[in-house]
Amino acid sequence: MSDVEIRDDRAAGRLEAVAGGEVVGHIEYFVLESPARALVPVHTIVEPAHEGKGIAGSLARELYALAGREGVAVAPLCPYVVSWAERHPAEAPAADPALVAAAKERLRAGR
Question: What is the number of other CB atoms lying within 10 angstroms of the CB of residue 24?
């Protein structure tokens, strides 16, 4: 895993794991502005050849770290990120149910 770089492509709404110059995994997300600013992960993908290497967990960890650096919450809709957050409560503060509801509504409305 040490040869994997995590980078934020905010314009594309992707947090990407890059190894050997290629994207080997990513979390798709959007930024919720109301009722409060939050990062909303909706889908996590790791390329099959790179599964089982901790890439998805590294992406989830970096998403929460990024939110922390920006002073915003995470309102996870991605099942993987929800599960990861439950297993890592010290790194992933519980999401405000109102933010999660707002994120679901925005996703239904087409982001």
Answer: 19
